Amino acid sequence: MRPRPLRPRDYVGAAAVLVVVVTVVVWSVRRDLAATPCSHDVCDTRKIISGYTHSDYSACVCEDVAYGTHPQQRLDVYKPPGKGPFPVIVWVHGGHFTTGSRVFDVSGDGKIDVVEDWAAVLRQVTRNYAVVSIDYRLASSTAHYTRLIQDVRQAVRFVKWQGPRFRFKAAGSPGPRVALWGHSAGATLVTLTDVASRLSKTNCDFGQGFAELAKYDDESDLVIAYSGVYDFNQVLDPYRNSKNPLHELFWNASNGASHFLGCDHYNGDALPYAACKPPTAQDPPPYPALPNDSPLRLASPLTWAGLGSYTMVAYGTDDALLPPAVQSKKYWERRNAASDKKTDFFDLPKGGHGGGPDPKTGAPGNGYPAWNAGSGKSELEPKISIRDWVDRALSEQLRR
To answer: Nearest Cα to 88, choosing from 155, 2, 10, 33?
Structure first.
């Protein structure tokens, strides 16, 4: 029996099948990259409240974008309107390494509805920067500093890989320029990540759908660090064995740092940490390690103070959790003496760990929105607002 000649409708049917197959493949790839489709022209506009200034503005928000296969490897993108390209600020949250979230959530429901810009980071959207707020694998009894640093590095690679998609850069152009900005534990991570990107290559398996990340570097052009831990040899719980109401906060910070370093559970002893495990071949540090090297040395930014990008170190003079004399100020002084890269500090009078002082009472503050306001001093300026200090550094380093 001779085969029937093909008719026009047969071609139409075959084309329909092909469209379905291609659609499924494309959808599968997009699902690997983001839980919700998002690009330069697909996003939601959200209202942002800017801390003590009470000024409102809007940003184009792309939520829950995957930069890896782990559930915590997610990020949100805040962009200005327009075609770009936009320099990028990667925001790394704090939370004593074991808690915290990328979501600037006012209502507390875990969703971005009205966004509170407590750290004055999202304000940069009005200055034509894109802000990428990331989650990372939180420290635990099995996840230590090497994995957290690896996640921040991977997020930077993702930003560079997906530059054309989000209009971080024009197609075919170099870039985009990237700043790392973090607070508290996030400040520790951005300084460690910046150094790691220059001392070692990431040879890990990025997972299904993310092999392209291997083609990109994870270097940044600027680091802004607010109130970080820079020397883990310092005791983080000055109120141990006391009834001071701050004891719980300091205990949580010390216990979180113990997980971050890979040490035994903190029990309030005089020593900062106990039984810290040396690096292993399965989880190698991103820095040159000595035999049986201590995480207290390897994971302290103070150890690597002579390396890295242009770095801005901000702190409150009354930070009781991380006293500047043994943390931020000490780190800046060591870095300023050892590094050939530009570095600067911001000294916020009466500022607490989160910011301050309170603009109404003048009392030392831990109110996070205070990073939106306040004047202090830097290495070059006897009096300057923290806004001007940050804005100038971003303009100099990301718009060259």
So the answer is: 155
Q: Which of 11-25, 126-140, 263-277, 285-299 has the lowest mean pLDDT?
A: 11-25
**Which among 356, 333, 355 is positioned nearest to 345, based on CA atoms?**
333
Contact between 335 and 343 (Cβ < 8 Å): yes
Alpha-carbon separation of residue 114 from 56, 57, 61, 67, 281 (angstroms): 10, 11, 11, 24, 45
CA distance 258 to 247: 16
Fold of 41-398: Rossmann fold (3.40.50)
Name the one residue in this structure whose structure tokens are 């075919």: 172
What is the amino acid identity at position 224?
I
Q: Is the pLDDT of residue 104 over 80?
A: no
Cβ contact 325:318 at 8 Å:
no
- 36, 40, 46, 51 alpha-carbon torsion, rounded to 10°: 110
Backbone angles phi, psi at 130, to 5 degrees: -95, 140
Q: CB-based contacts of 71: which residues, under 8 Å, 6+ apart?
A: none
- Judged against a pLDDT cut of 80, whether residue 338 lies above it is answered with yes
73 close to 136: Cβ distance less than 8 angstroms: yes
User: Residue ranges of the domains in the chain?
Assistant: 41-398
Mean pLDDT calculated for residue range 197-204: 80
pTM listed for this prediction: 0.84
pLDDT of residue 363: 54
Spell out the alpha helix ranges (H) of the chain.
8-33, 145-161, 163-166, 185-199, 247-261, 295-298, 328-338, 386-398
For strands 44-50 and 343-348, give the pairing. unpaired
How far, rounded to the nearest angstrom, does the alpha carbon of residue 165 sit from its chain's CA centroid? 20
Mean pLDDT calculated for residue range 387-397? 90
323 and 338 Cβ atoms separated by less than 8 Å: no
Alpha carbon distance 183, 201 (integer Å): 25
